[in-house]
Amino acid sequence: MTAFFALATSLLWGLADFGGGLLTRRTPALTVVVVSQTIAAAVLGVLVAATGGWSEAGPRLWFAFAAGLAGPVAMICFYRALALGPMGVVSPLATLSVAVPVGVGLALGERPGLVQVAGIAVAVTGVVLAGGPQLRGAAVQRRTIVLTLVAAGGFGAVFALIAEASTTVTGLFLALFVQRVTNVAAGGAALWVSVRRGSPALPGGGLTSASLPALAFVGLADVAANGTYSVAAQHGPVTVAAVLASLYPVVTAVAARGFLSERLRSVQAAGAGLALLGTLLLAAG
Fold this sequence. Notes:
Largest sheet: none
Helix content: over 70%
Strand content: under 5%
Number of helices: 12
Order of helices and strands: HHHHHHHHHHHH
Low-confidence stretches: none
């Protein structure tokens, strides 16, 4: 069950990142984040009301609130790093986010077997290579590295926090709703500051009718991924769930190949193969 839900997480996050990447080609990244998360929050609000999720309110919601603060910070740092430095460096470095939940799992006493340790090592190596690391070229600015590492830490914190935010399905709906409302508030504040500084909030022609379904997909896929990861982490070792869920860059690369006909570099193809091998080792362990 852990492997199934963690792999579903990587699929959903990978598709959400692919959709978000397409949208940010013509719409400011902050606007994409705020609008997509607002749609997700509205849907979750309906689910919470329909399932009576408010009865699950308790101290654990502080984990969801913290995840809601960490997410936008990580996303903003990640987009700024992509703007400053080569994606071939930023993308693989961002996958270091897996170190946070894995470290939490080890600190809580989880001890994966030898086969799982090998699977973790192989899968993480594959994910990094799937990002297409840039091995040659101009030196990368220190600010780019710092922003990327902050983003990785933020993404990893979301992994760890959302896994602790609830213990029941209805509680999970409420936790995800709180996280999304916090996302919208934090992202909205950042967008307001950006507009005040002169950056446009919308593209020249505004949001088209075709953009709204895509924004809805990105927001709902992202929130569904958080949900499936929470289930995976609760039903098995966090060390395994986190590594399998971190395979989303492979999904994004494959989606770009299938929908945009982007050719995978040899290092990315090798990374995808290693990620698959690591997944098999983790499942076998």
